[in-house]
Amino acid sequence: MAYDFINQKLVTACSKICREIFTEVQSEIRDYFTFDIRLIGSGDKRLVTQNGNEPFDLDYNLILQKDKKGLIGNPKQIKEIFIARFNRALENSGLDFMHASNSTSVITVKMKDRGKVVFVFDVAIIFEDNEGMFHRLMHDKDNNRYLWNTVPSSRDYLDKYQAVKEAGYFDEFKERYKDLKNKYLSNPEKRKSFSVFLEALNAYCRLWSGK
Questions:
Q1: What span, in angstroms and rounded, lies between the C-alpha atoms of 114 and 147?
Q2: Which domains, and CATH codes, for the chain?
Q3: Phi, then psi, of 136 in degrees rounded to 5
Q4: What is the pTM for the complete model shown?
Q5: Rounded CA separation 123/23 (Å)
Q6: Which ranges of the chain would DSSP assign to H, the alpha helix?
Q7: Which of 124, 64, 121 is nearest to 93 (CA)?
């Protein structure tokens, strides 16, 4: 098997379902946080991949904005609050979702059709510091602790990505991203799409700057 880019119509249909879930979570969470939600790759759906006939997934960054109760120093409570609200939204969706699971670096949600998982979406909880660096909420399961982990090479990534597209190099970058996804396919430690995206982006920008 190998990763390839998925049909846009399927991505659009599933992303619409996700947006409805996020809208309800935003309503449920408004006393605690406001947040922005982004499909990785600056929301560019042409970067979504699928490995053969396996369930495909969408990866989102949930970027915390206004912390109304000063909880940023308590990542465990933040994760628990969001999981509870996601589960409530999933139960109200009318679709066959499994309960949200507390994965190491994301909240994972799986949707089934006739008993088979057909679609997954992962949500990383992130905040941006005053220096423009992103920090991802992590659950260290070995030590049962929660912490904020700095995302390497995340500074100004949206500006870099926009520059690549505006310069007409998006197709080249897109292929580099897919190649890296397939490189890590055989790695037992699965790399999240956002991490692969950043690696591809920074590697491409280094090559581009050397042209």
A1: 37
A2: 3-152 (3.30.460.90)
A3: -100, 135
A4: 0.80
A5: 14
A6: 8-29, 75-91, 157-166, 170-183, 193-209
A7: 121
